[in-house]
Amino acid sequence: MTVIEARSLRKAFGKTVALDGVNLRVDEGRILGLIGPNGAGKSTALNAILGLTEYQGELRVLGRDPWDERDQLMRDVCFIADVAVLPRWMRVSQALDYVAGVHPRFDRAKADSFLAKTDIRRTSKIRELSKGMVTQLHLALVMAIDARLLVLDEPTIGLDLLYRKQFYDSLLNDYFDRTRTIVLTTHQVEDVEHVLTDLMFINRGRIVLECSMEDFESRYLEVTVRPEQVAAARALKPIHERQVIGRSILLFDHVDRKQLTALGDVRTPGIADLFIAVMGNQAGEAQGAAR
Amino acid sequence: MNTQSNAVPESPLGSQAIPSAAPSATRPLYWSVRREVWENHSIYISPLAVAAVYLVGFMISLIWLPPSMREVWMPHTMREMATLKAPDSLIGLAMPYAHAAMLVGLVAFLVGIFYSLDALHGERRDHTIRFWKSLPVSDLTTVLSKASIPLVVLPLVAFAVTVALQQIMRLLSIAVLVANGGGAATLWTRLPLSEMELVTLYGAFVLTLWHAPIYCWILLVSGWARRATFLWAVLPWVGIAVLENIAFHTSHLGSLLQDRLWGFGAAAFDLKDKNGVPVDTHFIPLAQLAPGRFLSSPSVWLGLVFAAACLVAAVRLRRYQEPL
After folding, report:
1. pTM of this prediction?
2. If contacts are CB pairs under 8 Å, which of residues 87-146 in chain A contact chain B?
3. Would you call A71 and B137 a contact, using CB atoms and an 8 Å cutoff?
4. pLDDT, tens digit, for every residue of A136-164?
């Protein structure tokens, strides 16, 4: 089942085009990472999906028009924008009461049981909690909602490694059940590498790469090439080349692993490696076009 | 998942809207009002605090009764009291109770103004608008919940605090009278507190309707202005009034604004009795209430239309609002 479906999605702020004719489809049960540099259009895309910003083109989320049906849509969609948005004046118990009061799909017992695993006291005000605890509370609120789509926009920004790991572990172990769909953006791609089922790079408002993680692992290979094999490796048209401690590391797309093994040490690249390669190429193309 | 370039789905968009659990229509409104009260303690703390201060002052005045009050209250002057004109003795008795109601009402008005100035601005300033918008609560419900604080909650709180304060004042007065050998029944029967409370309730109702355009205008400004909401709420009107005065040597807008602040009395009460004698506003009998005239006044309805327009604009505006 399709959860998000967009055709020619466009959004401009004055002369700045944030989304430039994006088409996408996200199916149920996927965890999509939307990765891009600052100002690439990630948050604008998420805001459009959440009905928080107007857009041109066609967009359906769970079959609804997010801009016109935001409050109905929010019964089935949850989002965490970042840790700073929970009201600091609120007590933990009030946050639970309020969400239970307004959300028809909120399970108070589930939130309580999640919070029982933390050090968060019900009587505490949110302003008294650490940043990590605020994230835990927000996650508890969200995980207790029987939502079909969860949107996370830089959910772990500013958190230390332990809290980030705990966040994604909870998300996978206690929340994700393959009938739910998650769309997330983050700059900390190494944290989500093992979490994602699908990957999408966005730059200057356009989708520049899109693949499943299975495809990613079978398509892309990185080779630390032996010096004498550099010319042969370059002949296979790598999509990116970089130098590390005097050795050439080349990134290939759709090249046979056996062929590459003869050239040097082969490994599956990280998302960050591919991101740098794709964005670097984009920047090069843009410069070329400018000349 | 499809690629951007060529994998446009074949299925028609919007063909599979998922039925959601249907919540009660009023439940989000109820909880939204509750969370406004949680956030803004001044809604009940301020009227209670001013009532407490007034009560302390009243208790002190009971110990050190001013001579004029003593003449009215003390049992040994009851015979003299009987010779006073009934309205005079009544007004003497009613005055501290009326002042209590006016003071609590004034504080509720000020709390309503300051609440409205921050209501839609605060959630953008502290970025919590993103959290509120992540929940299935419409902009209409949110704006209505915020409008209900000055239009419903504060008048009810003010009325309840006034009634409680006046009852405590009466009990204290009776205790002092009894301690001084007087009869409690005298005060109980002579002070028409029930009638005063009905007038207070009516006053809260007319005051709320009369001031509704002020609250709603300020709510709209709080949803629109990026900073200095008070100045944006006040300065345009003052500026236009000054401009009118300079350009045309008239003050229609100034009069209109003054009327909107203070004009409810003339619209909602007959301030002269049937003989044409002005009624003392410390005790307005039920017979002097003019609800029919008030509710048929164009000023009331024009004000309500303006208030409704401001709320509609505030709902539209909130849809587009981002954190500041």
Report:
1. 0.85
2. 87-91, 94, 97-99, 101-105
3. yes
4. 899 899 889 988 999 998 888 878 888 88
Six-digit token pair at A127? 């302003």
Interchain pair B126, A88: CB under 8 A:
yes
Q: Quick one: residue A267, left, alpha or beta (phi over 0 = left, psi -120 to 50 = alpha)? A: beta
**Single-letter residue type at B120:** L
How many Cβ atoms are within 10 Å of B117's Cβ, its own excluded? Answer: 20
Of B153, B149, B74, B146, nearest in space to B314 by CA:
B146
CA atoms within 13 A on the CB side of B154: 33
Count of all residues that appear for chain B in the document? 324
**Cβ atoms < 10 Å from Cβ of B37:** 14
**What are A264's two structure tokens?**
């040097």
pLDDT tens sequence across A21-48: 999 999 999 999 999 988 889 989 999 9
Bridge partners of A212? A198
**Cβ-contact B136, A103 below 8 angstroms:** yes
Cβ of A137: how many Cβ atoms within 10 Å?
Answer: 24
- Alpha-carbon gap, residue B119 to B136, rounded angstroms: 19
Give bridge partners of residue A9 from the DSSP assignment: A22
CB contacts, 8 Å: B14 with chain A: 60, 63-65
